[in-house]
Write a structure and sequence with these properties.
Ribosomal silencing factor RsfS, Iojap/RsfS/C7orf30, 4 helices, alpha+beta, ribosomal large subunit binding, repressor, cytoplasm, six-stranded mixed beta sheet, about 25% strand, Beta Polymerase, domain 2
Amino acid sequence: MSLENMLEVAVKAADQKRAEDIVALDIHEISLLADAFVILDAPTNRQVVAIADEIEDKMAEAGYPLIKHEGRREGEWVLMNFGDVIVHIFKKDTRSFYNLEKLWGAEGKDIDIENWIVKEEF
């Protein structure tokens, strides 16, 4: 079970529930917390929680149990710890306020997740 596989499962689960602006950051050289962050957002609290539920289900099916989570009840910012991967699910305006990509992205490296996201055609 590789880090790449964990990231793929989390990203695909979020994408299936219409998460927006999904970003993955490699932070293994700058953090003892985890090897990677997945950061995404949704327009409503209800969708934030639905995305969290989907990620938890798909990660468990793949053998990656949720170690700890915070914020699910409020639905503004759900933090999900899967060990090597920490998923941050924000309500859109909350994400803008905290701007984790700026905080961690300066020294972290973007991970290419393009192939795991389904492009919608209109």
